[in-house]
Amino acid sequence: MSYSFRFDPVELPPAAKELRKEVRAFLREEIEAGTFSPYGGKGSFSREFSRKVGAKGWIGMTWPKKYGGHERSHLERYVVIEEMLAARAPTRAHSTADRQSGPVILRYGQEEIKQKILPQIARGELCFCIGLSEPNSGSDVFASSTRATKTDGGWLVNGRKIWTSNAHQSDYMIALLRTSPPTKENRRHGLTQFLVDMKTPGITTRPIINLTGSHDFNEVVFDDAFIPDSHLIGEVDMAWKQATDELAYERSGPDRWIETFSCLVELVRQAGEEPGERLAEGIGREVAHLATLRRMSLSVAGMLQAGKTPMVEAAVVKDLGTNFEQALPDKVRLLAPPVGDSLPDTNDDRFEQALRYATLIAPKLTIQGGTREVLRGIIARGLGLR
Amino acid sequence: MNDSTDNIIVDTATRIFQDLCEPNTVNEAEKGIWPKALWAALEASGLPLTWVPEELGGAGATFGDGFAVLRVAGRFASPVPLAETLIAGWLLTRAGIPVPNGPLTIAPIHADGRITLGPDGTLTGRARRVPFARNAGHIAVLAQRGGEPAAALVAAADLEISQATSLAGEPRDDVSFDGVTPETVQSVSVDQSQLVAFGAAVRAQQIAGALEKILDQSVQYALDRVQFGRPIAKFQAVQHNLAILAGEVAAASAAADAAADACAMPEIAMSEIAIAKVRCGEAAGTGAAIAHQVHGAMGFTYEHSLHHATRRLWSWREEFGNEAVWAAQLGRMVAERGADGLWPFITAGS
To answer: The domain that contains B77 carries what CATH number?
Structure first.
C-alpha cells in the first residue's frame, strides 16, 4: 500500500505557450498605458481592467461557448491566471467569479440563470463574493445558521455573513444558507446554495478594516431579503455534496503560492548580478520551493483537465503553497543586504514596499479559503487517518 | 495510491526487491555481506543497464524507465550499486564504450574532483567517497586528458581502495588511480559538472523513493500503534505531522521527476537539477524527522527498518552537492537573469 499523492508532470500544449506570449504582451501594454503597476500602488480591483480581460476571452475560459465561455483547456486557463498574478494585475473584480462562482453556477445553477449570468461573468462585467463564514461559523462551515425560509415564489433570508471579501464591490454573492436543521445522522445536512443579488432590499454591507488599513472584508446583514426560486443553486439541503469540487478549483491555483512573490523579485533586484554566497543560497532555496510548487499546481490543473476532482492534492498544494508564501517575507528580510551596503542604482523603495506588503498580509495567507489546520485535516483524511 | 503500475520495468524491479531485498538483506549488507542473489536477479533482468543501448550491451530503455526503477530502489533501500551502475552505463554510453557486466560505479563524484590521464596512458589522482567502489567490478572514470574530458573504464581489481562508510552504512571508499592504465578510453562530451548534476538527479529520485517508504511506514505505524486507548493516528497532532510529511513527499517527488525529465533532454537543464536537489534534500531532513517522531523509541532501534530509509536520506542529501551548494548555484543563475527575468525563468520549463 502506498500513501503518497501523485503529481504527474504536465507538459503545456503549444497553444498554451502561445497564449502565454499573448498574455505577457497584453500585460506589458497595460502597464505601459498606466492601467496598473507591477509594483503595486493602484490597488487590485479594476472593473475597467476586468472588462478588457473579458474582451480578450480570458474569463470563463473553460466554460461552454453557449454560456459565453471559450471551451479552452484548464491548462490554458492556468497560464492566464499565473501570468496575471505574477504581474500583479488587478484581477479582483473578476477572479472570484471566474474561479469559483461561475463553475458552481455552471454545474448546479438553473438554466435561466446560467444563460443570464455566465455570459456577463465571461465579459468581465460581474463581481462575485462568497458568503460562507458567519460569526459562529468559520472553519466549521457546516455550522452556518443564516436562514433561508420558504415563502411565495422564493426565500426570505435572515442572519449575518462575515469576513466576506469584496462584498462591498460585488454584484452577486453565492451564499450558503440554512434551509433545514441538521439531522442526527448528518450534521452537514440542511444547507443550500443560493445566488444572491447584492442590490436586494434588506441586505446591508458594513466594512471591516483589516490590519493593513485596507477595506477588503465585510459584514453582510440579511433582514428579510428576498431570493427568487430561480436563484436556488442545486438541491435544497444538499449543499454539502456540492461544495467539494468547488474547493478543488479554489485551493490549488497560483494564487495560493504567489501572493508574496514580489518581495522575492525585489530581493533579486537588490542582490544584483553577482550576489555573495549567502544571498545566492538564500535566493536559490526560495526559488527551488517556488518552482516546485508551481509544478505541483500545474499538475493539479492537469488533473482538472483530465476530469478528476483532486480534492486532497489541491489541499496539499495549498498547505505547502501558503506556508511558503507566508514564510517568504521573513526569509527575504533576513537576506536583504543591510542599508548602506546596497548598490547605488537599486530601488530601495520598491523593495521596502514589497517586503512591507508581504509582511503585513502574511498572517491571512494560511487562514483564508480554508485554514492550515483544516487543510491538514483533509490531507490526514486522504491518508486514511480519520 | 496502489502498488501496480502500467510500467513493466517498474513492476519487474518491484517484484525483485520484494522478493530479495528484505530488511535483513539490508542489515547483512551493512555488515559487509554482499547480497548476491539480489544483484544476480537485477542483472538477469537487465535493470542495471537500463540506460545502455543494445549495441553497447544494454537494455536500451528510456531515461524515464531508469529513473522510475531508481525510485523503487530508493523505496527498498537496496544495498547494491544499482544507481551507480546506471550512472556508469550512461557515462560510458556517452563515450561509446561497451559496458561490462557486473556492478559498476563512477568517479570522481565531487564537483572539484580531478583525475587526469597522462600522455603515457596512465591515470593520476584520488577520488573521495566513491560509492560501492569495493563491490564494483569496474569504475567508469571521468578523466581529464589534455584539458578535455575523457571516459575511462578501469578494472577495480587494479585499484588501491581505502574503505569508508556512509551514514547509511554503505561503502563510500577512497580510491587511488595513480599509475593505473584503463581498459578503454574515449573522449566524451560530459564535463565534471554535468556528471555531478546527473548524479544529483539520480540521488533526488532515490530520496523521493525513500520518502515514499517512510510515509507508508509512518502512516501504517500510526494506525497500528495504540496509546491512551486509541491508535495514535486519531490524535490531531500526529495527523498534522503526517500531513506535513505527505506534503514533503509529494514535493520531493514532483521535483525529482522534473529533474529526471531534464536529464532526458539533449542538454541537461541545470536549473531543474538544482531545484530538485534542494527541494529533495530539504524534504529528506524534514521528512525523516517526522517519521522518527511518529515511530517513537521503536523507530530509533536498529531492529526496526525505519533507519534503512532515514539514514539513506541523510546520506543521499549530501552527495552530488547538498542543498546549500545547489541553492547557491541556483541563486546565481537567477541573479544573472535579473529580477525581471525571475518569472520567465520559473516558467521556462513549461
So the answer is: 2.40.110.10
How many pairs of residues across A and B have Cβ atoms under 8 Å apart?
191
Are B346 and A266 an interchain contact pair (Cβ–Cβ within 8 Å)?
no
Query: Long-range pairs for A370-373 at CB < 8 Å and ≥24 separation?
Result: A370/A139, A370/A247, A370/A250, A370/A251, A370/A315, A370/A318, A371/A139, A372/A319, A372/A322, A372/A323, A373/A139, A373/B240
**Are A256 and A378 contained in the same domain?**
yes
Range with the lowest mean pLDDT among A41-45, A299-303, B8-12, B15-19?
A41-45
Please list every residue in chain A whose beta carbon sits closer than 8 Å to the beta carbon of residue B213: none
Q: How far apart are the CA of B3 and the nearest CA of chain A, in angstroms?
A: 6
Mean pLDDT of chain B: 96
Minimal Cα–Cα distance from A340 to chain B, Å?
A: 20
Q: Which domain holds residue A218?
A: 130-239
The enclosing domain of A311 has a CATH number of 1.20.140.10
Assess whether pLDDT exceeds 70 at residue B145. Answer: yes
From chain B, pick out residues whose CB is under 8 angstroms from the CB of A385.
Answer: 219, 222-223, 233-234, 238-239, 242
pTM of this prediction?
A: 0.95
The 10s digit of each residue's pLDDT in B181-225 is 999 999 999 999 999 999 999 999 999 999 999 999 999 999 999
So what's the ipTM on this one?
A: 0.96
Do A277 and A367 share a structural domain?
A: yes
- CA angle, residues B162, B167, B168, in degrees to nearest 5: 100
* Binary contact (A380, B343; C-beta < 8 A): no
